[in-house]
Fold this sequence. Notes:
Helix content of chain A is about 45%, strand content about 25%. Chain A is α+β, with helices and mostly antiparallel strands. Chain A has a four-stranded antiparallel sheet with strand order 2-6-4-5. The first copy, chain A, has a three-stranded antiparallel sheet with strand order 1-7-3. Chain B binds a DNA duplex through helix 8.
Amino acid sequence: MEATIDLFGKLKSFSEPELQKEILKHGKLLKANKGDILIKEGQHLNFLPIVIKGQIRVYQQKEDREILLYYVGPEQTCMMSLSSAYFDYNSAANGMATEPTEILVLPSYLIADWQLKYPSWNKFIIKTFKSRYDELLATFGSVAFTPIQGRVKQYLLERMKKDNSKKIPVSHQTLANELGTTRVVVSRILKQFEKDKTLKLYRGYIQLA
Amino acid sequence: MEATIDLFGKLKSFSEPELQKEILKHGKLLKANKGDILIKEGQHLNFLPIVIKGQIRVYQQKEDREILLYYVGPEQTCMMSLSSAYFDYNSAANGMATEPTEILVLPSYLIADWQLKYPSWNKFIIKTFKSRYDELLATFGSVAFTPIQGRVKQYLLERMKKDNSKKIPVSHQTLANELGTTRVVVSRILKQFEKDKTLKLYRGYIQLA
DNA sequence: CGCCTTGTGTATCTTTTGATACCATCGCGA
DNA sequence: TCGCGATGGTATCAAAAGATACACAAGGCG
């Protein structure tokens, strides 16, 4: 890989100089545009993507329904690829860039080696497994126990925190895709919230009260 | 720990003699009865249980509803404890023995050390993370996309395979708890299946056709 | 400007799921 | 033997969620 200005300024997790050398040697930088599909369900993966900048949306799909699993943000990687690195495995989800995204791509066969050699890499791997699991478990609990109305509210509140803004740019259809339901259901629920004065609806965005 | 006959005959994953010594030195054997609660939601865990014999049911609960996450069988361990070993963490689920169960209990602080020292231990850890994730993801997809009727069918078929028997000893209430719904719903669906001749209902068990 | 895509509002109808209630039966233990 | 809890059948009603269809508006683009 060509020397990249400030790569490890953005990837602070990897402190060992030796590890950094290896990453520079074997890694490739990739740029993805908004909407680019990086991983498809059923696909066999032999690389590990680490997001440098931007974001990847990982979701499951069934017929015309889809549901969000998690986002991969900077300094993070994806479970599907990680699973593939250790076992013969086909992706159980899709990955799509939600904005222009820069990705560091590493070949799978190095993952396990590095894990034994470099403590910071090991920590990264374990942390990924752990936090992805937690996320999924939280979403699972939500889907299993909370009616959609509550999940819409949850989603909007989390989004507000994350973006630090009460103006949430999302279409009803997109919201439905995040939550695993349909557009009509989302519109209906949002309208109810609007009547309850908890938000206002506009074309293309939602303004929380 | 007192020398235990054939412990490593049952735990074939741990091949290194050094690791076996460590396990014998720091581990304790524990016996649980059917119905014993081993882990509670919110509880802080400082041990890692590895099942030797029997089974632990790990599930989430909310008010009077509950839903199965997974079972921990022989040679397996639980995600909650594993997460606790690496990070400050409170269990997000409950664990209960479903039958008389023998458990090897190891202190949390050793998990990470051993992982760097013993490849077979590392493999065990990674495999646990990976397979627990896969299970949860499968269940998640099922809950998100499949109507309950289909999930009842899935459950019964899987149970048939696992037990290698078409006679499935389970009450409607228990089935409801596994699937995150209520008894009445399960009874209704099962009755429909009986009308369709795909199974017969008896007190305390279900006979698949 | 007209056209097309995307986004939104809403009505109607059906299906699924849940809540409640009541009753019958079984089997265990006092 | 009686009582009681666990199990299961079922009816009724309500709520949640989904399917379909249609209308309209906003905005980009040729």
